[in-house]
Please model this.
Amino acid sequence: MTEGERGRLQQDLGTSRFMILRNHGLLVTAETVPDAFLQLFMLQRACEIQVLAQSGGEATIAVNQQVVEGIDAQSEIVLEGMGGDIAWPALMRKMDRLDSSYKT
Model:
């Protein structure tokens, strides 16, 4: 990534944590690696669901704005304030079982 690209992405990102880059895919920012992983997983899953919904040939239905505005609060309840840490330890244990060579 060049300095120019970095500056442009920072400017484009603004206060958002998520970006969809036409030629590069998905980009997220977060305070921690576990939070970034969880956010990236959720963004990719949302994209997959949207593609599936649009492939049905019917018009999609917009999500009610009240629902959109309540997503952050609902996430806090579901994740019990743990963010990405709710799944990260289990993912690391799975990685250790599959191939622990990443540690060296």
